[in-house]
Amino acid sequence: MKITFEELQAFLDEQFPQGAAFGSLQALGDGWAEMKLEVSDEHLRPGGTVSGPAMMGLADVTLYAALLSRIGLVPLAVTTNLNINFLRKPVAHKAIWARASMLKVGRTMGVGEVFVYSEGADEPVAHSTITYSVPPQR
């Protein structure tokens, strides 16, 4: 692992402060990360469920954290593709959390998957695969 939890947290706070709106870092390991989003009214859609964009944002930032655990603090790594399948309805006003793991990390790209869960449920509410572009090293 190229960075610590504390280093990544400080980096996200400084370089990506808007990321806090998508969740908070809970755990970090070599090629994996976990984040949690406390669901509030702003995350809900009609019908009383967590919105797709809220789950997508959480998945994206969680995989970004997992990628940085492998490549170090690279601010210009960017999402190039995100696919998400919504599997079941999350519980309104319960936190959602995501666990991301890298499937492949190369010189120019990283590919990973993310499972999103609703607090208190055993089965995932969404599954995402995400590709990141990694800028070339100089």
TrEMBL record:
Enzyme class: hydrolase
Residues annotated as domain Thioesterase: 47-121
CDD domains with a match to the protein in the record: PaaI_thioesterase
Enzyme Commission designation: 3.1.2.-
Entry-linked InterPro entries: HotDog_dom_sf, PAAI_dom, Thioestr_dom
A Pfam entry, by short name: 4HBT
Keywords: Hydrolase
Gene Ontology molecular function, alphabetical: hydrolase activity
Database matches in NCBIfam families: unchar_dom_1
Record-given protein name: PaaI family thioesterase
